[in-house]
Amino acid sequence: MTSAAQSYKLIKVIKDEKFDVDHLHQYELLIHLGVRDLQIGVVDDQGRIVFFEDFIFQNLNSSDDQLVLLKELFEAHHLLMAGFWKKVKFSIKNNKLVQVPSSLFVEDAGPEYLKLNAKFDLEKEVVLHCESIKSNIVTVFTLHKGIHEWIRSLYVNSSVSFMHQSAGLIEGVLHEIITDNPPPLYVYIDRFKLHVLSVRDERLMYYNQFAIQQFSDYVKYIMLVLNTMQMDPQNSKIMLWGYIGKKSPHAIEFSRYIKNVTFGGRPKYLKFGYLFDEVQDHHFYDLYSLHLLSN
Length: 295
Prior knowledge:
The protein is an alpha/beta fold. The chain is built from eight helices and 15 strands.
């Protein structure tokens, strides 16, 4: 494997003026891990984001490589090795997941639920779950066993929860205050992945994620979901978050094929200082939404 300096790059860092390293025991640490990226967020006891970082990864070929890289990144970081956070919420972005209604969920049956939707190896992966409280849905997912054990050992003095990106997104959109009738289709564009959600009467009606190979895939999958949900492609509203600039070529191309696209804003349940003005409001919605998950 290449050295850590060649394998990850810090894209963005924001440190709020209210951040105080002496108050870590009052702070919530958000760690959001993808195949190609990592986001870090710190929320203070007033619900204010006081620290944020966005990393991208390179030259990774396996989860074992990813664990090695994470250890090197954490050891070089001035905050992540601190072991006395009030809460640590570790979230994984992957496609090994299944959603189960809370009323039907049995914890010991996690692997059986997951077999319906994904292939996994219990010698290398651990099956976990987290609940989206407002939706009454439990997300069952996998995490590399070495990463899971390492995070648990690193933060033994903190309250540690393991979560999945999809659970955060579901909980996030259910907290959106929408007056449109019918409500919009919610879209989150991740790096090389698309998430689509539909909510009616404060209930989740649809969630899925799609791997993206080329730009036309975004339009194809959004149109597919609109048709599946019997939503008029010409008149239905699309609310968009994620890694797309408002004036980027991709955003302009979107408007050619899909009408009524609006960009979502920052969540109301968190506070943001003026330094976050340099981050577009619709970016990192999935990271922010982790704050809503309690387990």
